[in-house]
Design brief:
By secondary structure, the chain is mainly alpha-helical. The chain has helices spanning 8-30, 32-48, 64-79, 85-89, 92-112, 114-136, 144-170, 193-207, 220-248, 251-267, 274-294, 299-313, 318-331, 336-341, 365-392, 400-412, 420-441; strands at residues 56-57, 61-62, 179-181, 184-186, 351-353, 356-358. The chain is 63% helix and 3% strand. It has a two-stranded antiparallel ribbon with strand order 1-2. A two-stranded antiparallel ribbon has the order 3-4. β1 (56-57) and β2 form a beta hairpin. α3 (64-79) crosses α6 (114-136). The chain is globular, with a radius of gyration of 27 Å.
Length: 499
């Protein structure tokens, strides 16, 4: 019998990992900006190296995202009891999903082993739910709007650079072209669909006004300067990102981008005639692009896009392949408990498509969720998005961008399972919805109470004053001409007189 249950190298790595995990827990608990950066950096790194590398093998391979998931779950679980009932009510559907995922994981481990159940559950369920709960339970005084916006734009820029690097190395090819690297056929698209959606959402964040920063350190003057700088650089950068999304040829992301654009056109506050003007401008741009395409101005790039578009309409397109697989999975026999609570993780997704055997995930998150968490889990996800949508609608106009990213997510879930980075945006929406709900429930305070006064009005009058007419301020009313009392202060002092 060996002296140690594992080899010395694994044991040394385990003891080295413990201080690192403790450091990560401290970062997740005290430095949310760094934690969000790590959550978004891991998917970018996975795309850059074409797959993650296991950090530790304890019978089950642990990846960096698994360690971040454990830290996110621990910190979110510690924060949940400190929230009031109203704040926790918005997270109830997410907690139902966590409970169902835990039950399905335990059943999968008992039936198929830890490795099979863990590989099935970790990315699209545990990573996604853990990242969502962590961001959603962040303190309300955190400047999360600015942090997530900058981190997301940095991720979009990283994916854009990876796309350019991929095209420089392999060339820009149609989706139907078979590209071989070292004798292995690879996807001609340099980044996956989840990364393309991040780029499209980055363009949306650049074009739409930011969510109001609730940090007390913000000032209207600095916000105005930042808005001016954004106005100069945001539109060209957003147009560049949109061009990259088109060239990446992920058709589902095309539909998601169009859905977000239509949502912006319908939901944004607009004066009379503005919607019609913007619709006419979009029509002119599309007509001009169609004219350039007809005269062959796009060259080989236009031919590649045409091939990808025609492939989507063919009888052997990837979408038809997905639909046939969905039908096979739905027609499979299952018990009433499996319909309600799903089959255990690790039970597989075998189905026959056009005479071939497929074992990959269903490529539809709604179906994926129903197969593993049942109709109860699917209903919980839909209720979660409905609650977020309704609560964001009661907030300021800056919440519009969050409602639009929800549209993009819901469209992507039709053809793909949930990428972990989208959980950061969903958690951001839950966090913002919590703040909007709290502000809506807060009783309005009298005008001037507790509000800072302008600099010229902040000095208090002397303790003893000579009775007489009080100085009339610019824009004052009849109450400003009343005699001053001893010890009186202007608004902004002790709040004894409203402005």
């Amino acid at each position: 019998m060996p002296l140690l249950p594992v080899d010395p190298q694994t044991l040394l790595m385990l003891f080295t990992a413990l201080p690192l995990v403790a450091l990560l827990l401290w970062v997740f608990a005290r430095h949310c900006g760094v934690a969000i950066g790590l959550l978004l950096a891991v998917p970018v790194w996975s795309v850059a190296v074409d797959g993650q590398t296991a950090g530790l093998d304890l019978g089950v391979r642990l990846y960096p995202a698994d360690v971040l998931t454990a830290c996110a779950v621990c910190v979110a679980a510690a924060r949940l009891p400190r929230r009031d009932v109203r704040a926790r009510s918005g997270l109830l559907p997410a907690l139902v999903l966590v409970a169902l995922a835990g039950w399905s994981t335990l059943r999968g481990v008992a039936a198929f082993g830890l490795e099979a159940a863990g590989n099935d559950a970790r990315v699209y369920f545990w990573h996604f739910l853990a990242f969502t709960l962590y961001v959603a339970t962040l303190p309300a005084d955190a400047s999360l709007n600015r942090v997530v916006r900058r981190a997301w734009l940095a991720s979009a820029a990283a994916y854009a650079l990876l796309s350019l690097a991929g095209w420089l190395g392999r060339g820009l090819h149609s989706l139907t072209t078979h590209v071989a690297v070292d004798g292995v056929t690879v996807d001609p698209r340099p980044v996956p669909a989840g990364a393309a959606l991040v780029i499209a959402q980055g363009a949306l964040l650049l074009l739409c006004p930011p969510v109001p920063d609730r940090s007390p350190s913000g000032s209207s003057e600095s916000d105005g300067r930042r808005a001016a700088r954004r106005g100069v650089l945001a539109v060209p950068a957003a147009l560049l990102l949109i061009v990259l999304v088109v060239l990446l040829q992920h058709r589902t992301v095309w539909v998601a981008a169009v859905a977000m654009g239509v949502g912006w056109w319908l939901l944004r506050p607009a004066r009379a005639g503005q919607r019609m003007t913007s619709a006419m401008a979009a029509g002119v741009v599309l007509a001009f692009a169609a004219l350039l395409y007809l005269i062959g101005a796009f060259g080989t790039v236009g031919a590649s896009l045409t091939d990808s578009f025609n492939e989507a309409q063919g009888s052997r397109s990837s979408f038809v392949w997905r639909v046939l697989g969905w039908q096979e999975l739905l027609n499979a026999s299952r018990s009433t408990v499996q319909w309600l609570l799903g089959s255990p993780f690790g039970s597989g997704y075998e189905r026959s498509i056009a005479g071939g055997l497929a074992t990959v995930s269903p490529h539809d998150y709604y179906l994926h969720l129903m197969l593993r968490l049942g109709t109860v889990g699917l209903a919980a996800l839909l209720v979660l998005y409905v609650l977020v949508w309704c609560r964001l609608g009661r907030g300021p106009d800056g919440n519009l961008v969050l409602r639009l990213v929800i549209i993009g997510q819901l469209v992507l879930f039709v053809a793909y399972s949930a990428p972990p980075e989208q959980a950061v945006l969903l958690g951001w929406c839950l966090w913002q919805a919590r703040l909007s709900e709290a502000e809506a429930a807060r009783p309005p305070s009298p005008a001037g109470i507790g509000m800072p006064a302008p600099p010229e009005e902040r000095q208090a009058l002397p303790a003893t004053t000579v009775p007489g007419p009080a100085p009339v301020r610019n824009g004052g009313d009849a109450t400003d001409a009343l005699p001053a009392r001893a010890g009186a202060r202007w608004p902004g002092g002790d709040g004894s007189r409203g402005g």
